[in-house]
Amino acid sequence: MTDLQAFEAWLREQDRSDVTVRGYLADMSQFERWFEQTNGRGLRVEDVTPADVREYRAWLQTVQKASAATIRRRLMALRAYCRWGMAAGKIERNPTARLKMPREEKLSPGWLERSEQWRLVREAERGIQAADTPARRRLAVRDWALVVFLLHTGLRVSEACAVEVSDVQMGERSGWVQVRSGKGAKARKVPLNAEARRALKAWLEERGGQPGRMFEMTVSGVQRRLAEMGRRAGVEVHPHTLRHTLAKNLVDAGVGLQEVAALLGHSSLNATRVYVTPGERDLERALSRLEG
C-alpha cells in the first residue's frame, strides 16, 4: 500500500466526506508530482521537510500563480497528510507545524442577483415549453424542479442528490425534506416553501410514484445541467451558487444568522457570517452612489 492509499484509508477512518477525501487526494497528487520533480525521488512522508513545505508554497504562489484560496486548500491537504504520518508513527514532528496560511481579504461568496435568479428559472421553464417529446418534457420538468428546489432549500448538491422520495412530506400549506446525509453525517429537516412544494409536486406527477432518489441524478450530472442552463440564461451558476443565493436572500429579508445556519446545516455561525459580508457587487453599488 502506498502512502497516499494509506492516507486515504486514514481519512475515511476519520469520517471525512467523500468530497473532502477526493479533494485531498487530488491536491496531494499534485504535491507528489512537485516533490518528485524537485527532489528526484518518490514521495514518502518521512522525507518531507519544513523546507519542502516552504518551497512548495512559494512555487504555488510564484510559478502557479494560484489564488490564496487554492494555496490554502492545497496546504491544508499537505497538513492533513503529515498528520496522518504522525498518527501512523512514520514521523515524530509535523513539518507543516509552523506553516502560515496565505490570507486574502474575504468577500462574501458568489450568489445570483434577483434578475439572474429570474433568468435562470425562466430558462428552465422555457425548456419545458420547448420539449417536443414525453422523454424531453420529463427531463425538462426535472431540471426546472431541481433549480427551484435548490434555490429555495439551499441543500448541498450531494444532499439534494441523496434525497429519496420518502424523505419529502408535503401538504397544502407546509412541507419538509429530511436531509439524512448532511455534512459531517448530521441529519436535519428543511422546510419547503410554496415555490419548492409546487416544483416538487409537478416533478413527482411527471416522475411517477415509484420510490428511489427524488431527482435520479449524480452530483456531476447536476453540475452539468446547471452549467448548461446557466450558459443559455447568461448566468454563471453551479450548485453552491444556489446555496449561497438562498442564504443571501434570507439575510437580506432580515432572517437571523442562527436561523440561516440551521437551514444550511452549518455547525458554526462563523460559516454563516460570510453572508453578511459585502460581496463585490455590493461594494460596486456602494461606490456608484457617489456618481453624480
From TrEMBL:
Gene Ontology CC annotations of this record: cytoplasm
Principal cellular location given in the protein's record: cytoplasm
Regions crossing the membrane: none
GO molecular function, one term: DNA binding
Stretches assigned to the Tyr recombinase domain: 114-288
Alphabetical list of Pfam families matching this protein: Phage_int_SAM_1, Phage_integrase
UniProt xrefs under PANTHER family: PHAGE INTEGRASE-RELATED, TYROSINE RECOMBINASE XERC
Protein name per UniProt: Site-specific recombinase
